[in-house]
Amino acid sequence: DNSGHGTLVARLGWTLVGSPTAPLLAVVSCDNDKWGQQVRQRRQWIGAILVIVAGALLMVVLPDAASAAAPRKAIVVKSFTACGNSLTVWDDLNAHWSTYGSTPITIDYANNSVCGGSFTLAALRASGASVVILDDPAGAGSCCRYTAAEITALRTYASEGHNLLATYETFRNSVTNNSGLAPLFGLRASLLSANDVATTAAYSLYRTKDPALFRKLPNPYRGGGYLRTQRPTDGVWSANELNGATIIGITHSDEAVITAFHAANYYAAYISHRPEYKGNTQDKQFIYNAIIHA
After folding, report:
1. CA–CA separation, 254 and 6 (whole Å)
2. CA 202 to CA 51: how far, in whole Å?
3. Taking 60 as the threshold, does the pLDDT of residue 36 lie above it?
């Protein structure tokens, strides 16, 4: 017809209802199979795209379990607490680890195969621990004197990719000499004294040297816990005592220190007061950070 509607209707395969000259068209059927197939295909493509977009958004908003941080297990080995939890922060950290970060941790302080009298490399491996904690072993007296075989076992386990954390009188006191452990932490055994001294445990932190260890800690880090410190033979901590380690925190009078040792296959942190004994919130944050340290 002269309006052009007839041409449009013919091309689209529509059925025109009413007069050809009427102002309204009503589509009641689609006779053009090719055109209908194209429409259906486009709808399928759009639907597939929407499904993909929705899935991507869901992955961003709700990450699956595989993307969550893997739990980290620490084990306390032959130390002052002797398979117990006497006045330490272990149970509190096990129960409230989420206060300090998003990575779950567990601290096993009662594994009799490693926390009691003697331990072996096989026992360390069987523990499945990512981190080994030495809780003031020399401070416990003769019960926690490390044998050459135990030091070798610990060195081997560390070299297999397991980190170390040591506190306070790990290396020496007036009764026990564990100075053979010092090289595992990048320290010189011959320069560590059998005497301790009082400390404020207020550490000025060199954050740029190890930011992961000091995450969520103020500067200075004011420790609580047992406020005495392992001391060097010259009375102050400095580069003299280092054999590969780095001082990353130190008190105003240099009597207490935090060191870090990046060995080929493991990381070892040492703090010279005892944060695990009645430790405050900052001490717990420090221990948590050391356990999750990569």
Report:
1. 97
2. 56
3. no
